[in-house]
Amino acid sequence: MKWHLALIPFAAAILELAPGTAAAGPQAQLDLPPIFGNTYTEPSAFYVRWTVTTSGSALDHSATLVASEEQIQQALFLGQAPPSGADLQKYFGDQAPGFAGWTVHAPGDTTVHVSNVTPGKVYYLAVTAVDQAGAYDGIFTTSRNIMRFKPTTEFQAPFVQITSPTPDSVNAPVVPAALNVKWTASTSLGTVIDHFASRIISEHEIQLAFGLGNATPAVSQIEEYFGLQAQALAAWTILPPSAVHEHIETIPDGQVYYYALTAVDNLGTYNASFSFAPQYGGTQNLVSFRTLATVPTQELTWGAMKAKWR
Predict the structure, then answer these.
(1) Rounded to whole angstroms, how far apart are CA atoms 254 and 154?
(2) Using an 8 Å Cβ cutoff, are 114 and 125 in contact?
(3) Is the alpha carbon torsion for 10, 15, 19, 21 positive or negative?
(4) d(C-alpha 271, C-alpha 182), whole Å
(5) Which fold has domain 159-291?
(6) Mean pLDDT value of segment 179-199
(7) CB 124 within 8 A of CB 76
(8) What is the pTM (predicted TM-score) of this model?
(9) Where are the domains of the chain?
């Protein structure tokens, strides 16, 4: 699932901070991946985290503020020009030392939920920190404690990549009937994974579904089959968001099985398209494997001697 920045209703937990000083104060650092252009595309509600480094006195609280680009333009008489780094420093920095109207966060609270934003508009989120001596973080920059973002109603589903067995639609690896399927997953900034959903189907079931007889299903047919099955994720196995593998057990019959995996984020978004490997495009969220067949033990008995072989 993904983290969301959701603009917090300003009526909640808004206080006027005590006067302080920027000298030798703490520093706040937003926990964001670097991107080109410093504009993050986010859903209309999401979370953002930050860390605080103190120098001397312990942290008293953090404070956050979200302002639209239009608000900043009007306050600084910029017209339609986007705010420069100096403009952002003036807008947010001039609100020190009181930071009146900012949302206050206790020392252990380093996450803000952003909501009530309009898709398509540009916003800025700023975070500062104040220590117990009254010193504060008064330097504001998009490289550290300002986030420029544009909410959108269109958001990408979580990304899932199966790493073991190796996704390959051409050569199904031979594996034990009991094995762990492993994967990695990621989400877009602002959402988190709510749960995973998996499904394992024998090749025979897909052959029956498409009336193939004993013919091997085409890659497109396998992907189509799971895509249709994923429309409501009915009968899929649900796994917790912390899962990084699933232990599965099949019949040791030497047959081919297909395993599909998807992740559902906290918005209910998930990928209902499945593919094997990079050469087929898309994510690697589908894998085929052939179980290792168990050969029955043969036993001959004569006299006081026994012989077994496989």
Answers:
(1) 44
(2) yes
(3) negative
(4) 18
(5) Immunoglobulin-like (2.60.40)
(6) 87
(7) no
(8) 0.50
(9) 27-151, 159-291
Return the CATH superfamily for domain 27-151: Immunoglobulins (2.60.40.10)
Say which residue, 113 or 78, is predicted with more confidence.
78
Instruction: Give the mean model confidence (pLDDT) for residues 145-167.
Output: 82
pLDDT tier at 4, thresholds 50, 70, 90: very low
Q: Which long-range contacts (CB under 8 A, 24 or more apart) does 28-34 make?
A: 28/52, 28/62, 28/127, 28/128, 28/129, 28/137, 28/144, 28/145, 29/53, 29/144, 29/145, 30/125, 30/127, 30/144, 30/145, 30/146, 30/147, 32/147, 32/189, 33/189
Residues contacting residue 202 through CB under 8 Å, at least 6 positions apart: 250, 255, 256, 257, 258
d(CA 274, CA 228): 10
Confirm if 259 and 289 have CB atoms less than 8 A apart: yes
Stronger pLDDT, 111 or 184, i.e. the higher one: 184
- State the Cα–Cα distance between residues 250 and 164, nearest whole angstrom: 16
